[in-house]
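Query form — protein Adenosylcobinamide kinase

QUESTION: What is the three-dimensional structure of this chain?
INPUT:
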Amino acid sequence: MGEITLVTGGARSGKSAFAESLLDTEAKINYIATNCSAQDPEMANRISLHQQRRPKNWQTTETYLVVSDVIEQAQVSAHLLDCATMLSTNYFFDLMKERFGEDFTIIDEEILKLTQKEKAAIEADILNEWQKILTAARNSQTDLVVVTNEVGLGIVPENAFSRWFRDVLGHVNQSLGKEADAVFFVIAGIPMKIK
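ANSWER: The structure tokens for Adenosylcobinamide kinase are given below.
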């Protein structure tokens, strides 16, 4: 049975570098990169810095869909999923594209019209996807390290949708924290084991 480790912290806290340090640089590691495309040059630079830091023998799987299948099928020592926040966000927008098409202007308009019932169904879909990932990890012999952003320590978002989605991400983190065998909180580059 694979062990699950969760590493959380704020932006630029050092959580990704710490998560990487938990794994053997000589082992066969599958890095599951969930931010699959750069929307602007600054994001492209962030992705590049992450890629340069990884050991050359680690493989990379760029996806935020069917991650449970990746975990079940890959023959590796461990998976490092970076990050849960991007996976959840990308998965959310995938659900929106299924409903409303590819035009993000329309998606943005439709998001504002979502009812509480529709929001609850979307959150359930996201949490269900995470349950598939966690079940795959538990059923495998491969360890899983998940990096996530701690979303509850910053400013309260300005609009109702952003506040709701922040809550969804917080619920994802709670689910991950509950299931994880070990949890680390990284602040100012300093990891603290909290579970």
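ADDITIONAL NOTE: The chain has a mean pLDDT of 91.
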